Amino acid sequence: MMVGCIRQQGTDEQYEKFGKRAENFEITGAYAQTELGHGTFLRGLETRADFDRKTDEFVLNTPTITSYKWWPGGLGHAANYCVVVANLYIDNDPKGVAMFMVQLRDEKTHMPLPGIDVGDIGKKMGFAGVNNGYLGLKNVRIPRTNMLMRHAQVLPDGTYVKSPASVLAYFTMVFVRCLIVRNNSTMLSMASTIATRYSAVRRQSPINPKEPEPQIIDHVTQQMKLFPEIATSIAYRLSSTKLWQLYDQTAEDIKCGEFGRLPEMHALACSLKALCSRDSANGVERLRLACGGHGYLASAQLANLYSAATAACTYEGENTVLLLQVGRFLMKSCRMLMAGKPLVPTISYLQDAIKVNGLEKWTGSWQNILQALQIATAHKIRITFENLTARLKAGQTEAEAANNTGIEYTQAAELHGTCFVAATFLEEVTGPNAKNRSPALNKVLENLLELFLVNTAMKYMHEILRVANISDMELRALQTRLEDVLKALRPDAVAICDGFDFHDRNLKSTLGSYDGNVYERIFEEAKKSPLNKKPVPDVIYTHLQPFMKAKM
Amino acid sequence: MMVGCIRQQGTDEQYEKFGKRAENFEITGAYAQTELGHGTFLRGLETRADFDRKTDEFVLNTPTITSYKWWPGGLGHAANYCVVVANLYIDNDPKGVAMFMVQLRDEKTHMPLPGIDVGDIGKKMGFAGVNNGYLGLKNVRIPRTNMLMRHAQVLPDGTYVKSPASVLAYFTMVFVRCLIVRNNSTMLSMASTIATRYSAVRRQSPINPKEPEPQIIDHVTQQMKLFPEIATSIAYRLSSTKLWQLYDQTAEDIKCGEFGRLPEMHALACSLKALCSRDSANGVERLRLACGGHGYLASAQLANLYSAATAACTYEGENTVLLLQVGRFLMKSCRMLMAGKPLVPTISYLQDAIKVNGLEKWTGSWQNILQALQIATAHKIRITFENLTARLKAGQTEAEAANNTGIEYTQAAELHGTCFVAATFLEEVTGPNAKNRSPALNKVLENLLELFLVNTAMKYMHEILRVANISDMELRALQTRLEDVLKALRPDAVAICDGFDFHDRNLKSTLGSYDGNVYERIFEEAKKSPLNKKPVPDVIYTHLQPFMKAKM
User: Fold this and answer.
1) Which of A34, A200, A375, A495 is the most buried (most CB within 10 A)?
2) What average pLDDT score do residues A108-112 get?
3) Which keywords accompany this UniProt record (chains A, B) (predicted)?
4) Are residues A184 and A116 in the same domain?
């Protein structure tokens, strides 16, 4: 992360000087932005860098406990250098946020340098192997040339030269969010594989009282826990691929000095990062619970996957904050629509959907389900816009009105992202790409799409019913379709997961190995536990027996 | 647990002999039921106890790897005795499940006895301080009189005397499930306290661009994360109190030989255990996420609370299995209704609700919301029953039909439990108990009830809209009510949590202490981390620096 940052934010000379040394393993680094008291709101950072014209240096300080850098990975002990994000001051005049290359530890002894208070932040829910660190700075002086100056600059006389394209810093965030969608969809596929394989091995509770206990995957309620997650992981995987394509196009545009596509790209990355991190984390956890008690074993690896998946809900932009940003984008789109201006492609469905007075007819076809979702989304966007406008008319500031309409902002953003995921899945299975697949493979994908769309329609039925007349019989038919497609997927479920092609070494799960030797592996892991090194651990003699004697 | 078991399942002499010794700390015990390959389905246990008439002994064996006892708390190392649940055989003829008192370890040396393979099952998601254990038995002989014989008995000549009231074993399970509702609602209150207090300390993201960052509790989306969980924890707390009252009445009845109330009690305990464990776990996790990155710190204590809360989803009856049992109870109630028989009190709403053709009129009053929920539940029960019946008519066995209707069984059970929780909350706030409270206090409870009911109505709106005509304007009015009540609760939120009266010693949370010194406490905890004992941990010299040199 530090190297990437130096490459993007530093000059070529700075990259030669610092970046290459890190790439060559001569130094180790971290990227320190978040503070103990400050996260998402960058301008609120308290760490300050004051320019000292006399010595041509910056003086860095974390003046309060809340300004201590907190969380950066590798900062605790491994890093001897660090990119510090701080507010820049020249003659006590704030110039905005900038980045500074700071040496933390002696390269030979690894001891912290004067003015540097650095250490580990202690135990977390996950990431046991990462030394997330804290960093306090007290009058730490660095040469002026240690400020990363590809964009903004400070000249020796103290002149501040503004960045010509501040938009570029924010494009890095878009990149990381695209990455999260890919990673988290993969974690959900991994958890699906573990739970589905285990469900084909585990036997429990006879369906017919006189028959032996079936594989639990034959219980319909178990299928309902497993198969939707398989489908969801594929849906996000496909969306992530589409997202990368858009990212590459946007990156090309930027090289040509064309920034027009960026707000759309930003909104899409925000909504998919928020939805995929949330749905993958919740999905992993549902799958863990689907493995019953053994899902609670560390060796099942599901708790670890959950810790990793859920962390993405708060890092790189807290999910609610991101959804609120998407909400603002939707409100802007609404205004553009009303001004007769054209909309960007991923929100263009709004043009038609907002005009119609509800869904013309519910047929339940895939295309029809997507249309119902889009019209429900348009409806939500419209009422959000109306409520926002009413608050503005009542005298609230734009910001207050947005805060008070916040719940609906996030609902609209969630629906908007869901439309993209559903449309992408539908396009992949029924569009031109289908021709490159065998009919047998596409049939399986059709089943997964059917499950995803029926399930999504049911999940948002409270919104769909606001814009569509659907009879009770039609709702019952939807339930039947759900049950039918679960049954259809049953014979393929394990094979679909095998098709994800995770190696046992990567899954590292006693429940989810390819050979299905679940119980042997659980047993083997237990035998390895440090608590089983002696038949009687010392604590029995030192604590338990004396305690019992004292109580007797 | 072992002592309680001996008291309930053992004879008075057995209690004197074994139970008292455990109470006096002369021996330590565990209760071993679950096996590596067998959980909820008790008859499937593979551990067997064969009666040997010649020696007047039982011979206990775990003949396969899947029959190893797995999970019992304290079994790994602490226990030297254990109640083993096994299938009883006399002359190879199975007599059903029975319980046996088995010595595992020498009382002095604590070494495992011959034929006993015992140890710790290794790391889990939570409960780091509990030595959950495994146990293998190989021709372990115990005196006949070590079988717990309060109910069923084996005589010296091998005669098996059946239990007159097998129902009693199952009443213990009801007790434990009532306990879980109480405990888990408390965990949700604890997490609410931590997150609400933190939200009043943490500042983030200006609402108005030129003003300082507000307490995050002033963001409406944050209120939406916090306040519903406060209300839910109180709703389940009240339901748990009602549940205990019913439990006490049922226990009284049983003493008088009256078992009629038991199925109702069982169904209610099952549904509340399932709903409360699920909602409390999900709620704790939402609250953890509401604390942003710092919620991920172990010292926030929220991850620990989550590990404890979620464990209750699978232990003491896996939630889906329990909801399916409630579903069966609902189908039975349906049949009774159709046969013109009276229904037990907690399902009596079905009598009226199933007759009406939907909700007469949506007014949105509290009573009306409850009625809408009840009619939606009745509708779900009816269509579940119809689908079950159709499958039976199509030739499926009762069991197959139940499995194929399983998703709807669990949906109906969830709605049924929700009706009980909503009705209980409504009764508490508007019924006779309100008179014992100050108007000011009851006003706060009214706000919490309003939030709970509006939120619950929205959550189940897809079901309510099937039985009620609610216009879009009325749905928007509901959204306004939600936003209004969040605002009304804002000034009281911290005080409500203070009212839960958890001591800092019990919360053990850096984010949730009474004095609000969040950042100081986080810092203090980090400083205590073992990773900060030396300024440079040895691993830097032994691993990191050699690794870098090798790479250079």
Assistant:
1) A375
2) 97
3) FAD, Fatty acid metabolism, Flavoprotein, Lipid metabolism, Oxidoreductase, Peroxisome
4) no
pLDDT at residue B315 in the model: 93
CA distance B409 to B325: 9
Q: Calculate mean pLDDT across residues B21-27.
A: 94
Q: Where is the domain boundary, A155, A185, A205?
A: A155
Q: Who's near B420: CB < 8 A, 6+ residues apart?
A: B239, B268, B271, B272, B346
Q: What is the ipTM of this complex?
A: 0.96
Three-state secondary structure call for residue B28 = coil
Task: Give this prediction's pTM.
Answer: 0.96
CA-nearest residue to B396 within chain A is: A208
For residue B313, give the CATH number of its domain.
1.20.140.10
Task: Specify if B160 maps to a domain.
Answer: no
B119: containing domain: 29-155
| Same domain assignment for residues B133 and B177 | no
When CB atoms are compared, the residue of A68, A125, A483 closest to B303 is A125
Nearest to B168 by CA among B70, B266, B242, B287: B266
Query: Would you call B237 exposed, middle or buried from its count of C-beta atoms within 10 A (0-12, 13-18, 19+)?
Result: buried
The per-residue pLDDT for A165 is 67
Q: Is B406 on the interface with A (CB under 8 A)?
A: yes
A16 in contact with B, Cβ within 8 Å: no
Residue of A nearest to B459 (CA): A462
- Asked if the structure places residue A510 within a domain, the reply is no
Banded model confidence at residue A166, pLDDT cuts 50, 70, 90: low
**Any idea what the CATH number is for the domain that residue A76 is in?**
2.40.110.10
Which of the four pLDDT bands, split at 50, 70 and 90, describes residue A357? confident
> Tokens in use for B544?
């990191």
> Which residues in chain B have their CB less than 8 angstroms from residue A531's CB?
76-77, 119-120, 122, 131
Q: Which residues of A touch B228 (CB under 8 A)?
A: none
Q: How many CB pairs under 8 A join A and B?
A: 287
